[in-house]
Amino acid sequence: MLRHSESHRSHRIGWLRAAVLGANDGIVSTASLVIGVAAAQASQETILLTGVAGLVSGAMSMAAGEYVSVSSQSDTENADLAREKEELATQPEHELEELTGIYVKRGLTSDLAKQVALQLTAHDALGAHARDELGIIEATNAKPVQAALASAGTFAVGALLPLLVAWFASETKLVLSVAVMSLAFLALLGGLAAKAGGASIWQGTARVTFWGALAMLATAGVGSLFGVAIA
């Protein structure tokens, strides 16, 4: 007997989004910062110091931002679940009708929808309403600490890449080296993220590379415009 196995990627949504956002932001913001300061004729030591400061502050900012944002989502989910639990305890018949109506709208006949609602309510009433009424499922459930750590860690790794290039590059070729290598890093990141998410690799690569190049051009322009040496 043949077994039908499927590989789904929806369980990766929580950490993958935070990780891709962190790494992408780390590469783009640090590379742009380095290029902008370098375009202003700063010394290599100043460029590296600025980049390290950007790495630390950016990682902490990403961690705090993700934690606060996802915590707000988690608070909303918990409040909805608490309200739903109370309604199940005080208005069970109404909640059963509500669940039945949801299944009817999805294409089941009234009788079958009622049977499904009854069986799911008997098995796990709150779980059924969380999933089918509120849209809260385990794969996308808010996890603030996981998101904060993923964003901060991947931001730091992403930011470290253009800094290493700036460390080893000569002063005369620093801007070009950081720009080219950072775009290569972004292209690789976009491709890997798209592959992990089951999307088009070329589309993912082009998307992050375009916005990264745009950010670097903008900061290079600002650095050149206010091109004064920074002691």
Brief overview, please?
By secondary structure, this protein is mainly α.
Provide structural commentary.
It is built from 7 helices and no strands. By secondary structure, it is an all-alpha fold. It folds into 2 domains: 13-73 and 145-221, no CATH class; 84-140, no CATH class. The model is unreliable at 4-12 (pLDDT under 50).
Q: Which regions contain 5 or more consecutive residues with pLDDT less than 50?
A: 4-12
Q: Tell me the series of helices and strands, N- to C-terminal.
A: HHHHHHH
Write down how many β-strands occur, each being a DSSP E stretch of 2 or more residues: 0
Gross morphology is elongated
Domain tally: 2
Q: What is the typical, i.e. mean, pLDDT? A: 82
Structural class by secondary-structure content: mainly alpha
**N-to-C CA distance:** 74 Å
Describe how the helices and strands are arranged.
Blueprint: H1 13-39, H2 44-90, H3 92-105, H4 110-132, H5 144-168, H6 174-197, H7 201-225
Helix pairs in contact: 1-2, 1-5, 1-6, 1-7, 2-3, 2-4, 2-5, 3-4, 5-6, 6-7
Q: What keyword list fits this structure?
A:
231 residues; mainly alpha
